[in-house]
Here is the input.
Amino acid sequence: MFRDEMLRSLERELGYWDIIIIGGGATGLGVAVDAASRGYSTLLLEQHDFAKGTSSRSTKLVHGGVRYLRQGNISLVLEALHERGLMLQNAPHLVTNQSFLVPNYDWWDGPFYGVGMRVYDMLAGKLGLGPSRRVSKEETLKRIPTLKADGLKGGVVYHDGQFDDSRLAVNLAQTAADHGGVLLNYMRVTGLMKSGDMVSGVVAVDEETGTEHRVFGRVVVNATGVFTDSILQMDNPAAQPIITPSQGVHLILDKEFLPGETAIMVPQTQDGRVLFAVPWHGKAVVGTTDTLVDHPSLEPVPLEEEVDFILEHAAQHMAKAPTRADVKSVFAGLRPLVNPGGGKGTSSIARDHFLVVSESGLVTITGGKWTTYRKMAQETVDNAALIAGLEEKACVTKNLRIHGWLKNVNAKDPLHVYGSDQPFILHLVERTPALGEKLHPALPYIKAEVVWAVEKEMARTLEDVLSRRTRALLLDAKASVECAPEAARLMAQTLGRDAAWAQAQVEDFTQLAQGYIMA
Here is the structure.
């Protein structure tokens, strides 16, 4: 997957693409995979990097949504549980079965949550990941010895999915490319072209060169997440906003706060959200919050009160209360909650996805969540093909193996996230042994991964490599800054850039990383 080749493919196509997709997050990439695998000529344009926004900032869970079950949204839970099972089948190198424990501190919690989780299991059907069960106080503390023991009655164990979000996004881009799709990051759509009153293509600017491209398409899909309204208003300046962005913050703590392989789920916090503490790449991801924000941003900023909220609730359940000094990284993501009515609260806004076709033929897909990306894409391409008058072709993604598919991986090997591509990275090390050295003692990444990210995964900036191709910035923000000069040197060498470029990349990344480091 080379950007220069993708650019040449864009420039060679002088006629109409079957489907043009704006947005390179989970939703847009899912649409690209679906469209390309059906055989439609497919072009995806992303203003920054793949999964730069919401899609790399999740809680790292593939789940049906226990919270939605409690709210009575059975249809969303059913759909998500079904899609969770398909994700595990189609990307087993990245999606895994994760055990969760709900600690019980009141005598009625055990029966109450035990029944609820059995309903969860029942809804999952044959795609379930394992039966839930009540466990004793002793087994609870054996699984999670850092839980507060005072007043603990026991717990309920259940199963959900866990994954690496931006790694899956990269693999989806590769999957679309494997099926003939053309995908370009750093290609910002600045306008829609129209024939009469109907959308007939897009105007896009290459952020690297400033070159403008006018691209024709039989149908255009708006899959821009929290930026959905900006594209809708390109189409119709009078269009009313439909997105209410909600911010979720996560903290990364060392493994000592969550030893073992079991995650914690606290089903009720002060704001009604579920709190998770999940093992992830040798650390613990703790979150999240639900805070209304006025305007979407590519780099949302965690609020002090959000950090305090998570630390306070973590302290209520952990024997050793985490402090700001224990936080290795803090990151925020924005949820594109669909709110056509314009209400201000986030708790009452549905988390279902939203598909609408404008009078101009612009197809907009937004809302939803990572777990249901495939189903959202199927519905979107079905509608887009109908709007464009494309030849009817059946969706094949239900059983489509994602790039990197490998059934049996060693989860303790940091390179397992590359699945079937791992041998090629090892071959880079065989050719150049120095690439086998670690980027930083506190991080699991080797230098060969930087070269691979540039050569095969369209990484263009140091941030792309240290935030999304590897997860260095999220796992340990200070360590990521310390290894930035060496990573930039390797990138410059691979891309054919000079030392000034590498220095500018280090400066830009260092400035960005300050927002991930706890003061």
